[in-house]
Design goal:
Number of strands: 0
Order of helices and strands: HHHHHHH
Distance between the termini: 47 Å
Strand content: under 5%
Number of domains: 1
Structural class: mainly alpha
Largest sheet: none
Radius of gyration: 18 Å
Shape: globular
CATH topology: Four Helix Bundle (Hemerythrin (Met), subunit A)
CATH class: Mainly Alpha
CATH architecture: Up-down Bundle
Length: 186
């Protein structure tokens, strides 16, 4: 029973997207930071438990990044709707995730299991958008304008979003070609 705890924590993180959207829409930035703190704890805890006790699962390998993306995309969309994030940046972040998700699903259907591991650029593309959201929300929570920090963080968010999107597409294409070659009769 406990071996399913990491997956349950991922689902909790997914569900936290609801209060994040609600709180951001109501300009409750301090409370939003607390919800993000809870999400961060669930993220760290699910990974720790899965690795420490060998509770890793195929479902968990899908749920963990999906939970992160749901929370982040929800935050970007809501912050855009309330005028705190530029539309073009939110479109880039969301489009990347839609393209990667569609590519993963297509690969899975036509070529088999993904069996991928996050690359450095992918990890950076998780770090920078999360940092960006935290700076935007934190600035609102502190009732301080931090335009320089926000502008400085915009560049690595956009660059890693584009670079990791291209990296994923190239990886899917290379792996699909490899699988196709392996399937051809010799």
């Amino acid at each position: 029973m406990l071996r399913h705890l990491p997956n349950a924590l991922c689902i909790v993180r997914m569900l936290l997207a609801i209060p994040v959207a609600y709180l951001l829409a109501r300009d409750e930035y301090v409370a939003t930071l607390w919800v993000f703190a809870v999400a961060a704890v669930t993220d760290a805890l699910d990974g720790f438990l899965a690795k420490r006790f060998g509770w890793e699962s195929e479902l968990g390998k899908t749920l963990d990044p999906l939970a992160d993306k749901i929370l982040l995309v929800t935050a970007f969309i809501t912050l855009t709707v309330v005028g705190r994030v530029p539309v073009w940046l939110a479109v880039a972040v969301v489009a990347r995730d839609v393209i990667i998700g569609s590519g993963a699903l297509t690969f899975r259907i036509f070529f088999g299991p993904i069996n991928g591991h996050p690359t450095l650029i992918s990890k950076l593309n998780t770090l920078f958008p999360i940092g960006y959201v935290l700076v935007v929300v934190g600035a609102q929570a502190a009732a301080r304008a931090l335009p320089v920090a926000i502008v400085i963080l915009t560049t690595p968010v956009l660059v890693t979003t584009i670079a990791s999107g291209i990296d994923y597409i190239a990886t899917y294409i290379q792996r699909a070609i490899g699988v196709s070659r392996d399937r051809q009769p010799q």
